[in-house]
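Quick one: co-fold with zinc ion.
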Amino acid sequence: MDNEDVKKAHELDCQIQNLLLKATEAREFSYSPYSNFKVGAALLCQDDSIYTGCNVENSSFTVGTCAERCAYFKAISEGKRKFKAIAIVAMQKKWFTPPCGACRQLMSEFGQLDVYMTKPRHDDVLVSDLKRLLPYQFEVTDDKTFE
Ligand SMILES: [Zn+2]
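Sure, here it is.
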């Protein structure tokens, strides 16, 4: 990723601008008392519905989950399987916050989508997609019998 991938929010499609807003709102619900690192996500489904998520931490650290997976689990648990885009909002001074490796893997299970990353109250958006974020994706293309 380089600076050519950074766009101004107001130049993006209004559906994506709305998605960025929803992710920013979801970030406010972050439960992150241990890291104090708030993340919000908003997932745009094929049918144009939106599911939001935030990171949820736990005193037993591995039990927590990321905002992206939270949004996916909400959508999947309501029958959604196809997604067009996800917006991720977090605050780091120097760069944007792309999804972690585990979230990229989870996303790849449900097909390709565009990924928009920004900061709260920030006009710059890093625009990418899952194919670029997770090249050579794991998938089982043969039958499910492993030798
Ligand atoms: Zn993650």
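If it helps, The chain is about 25% helix and 25% strand.
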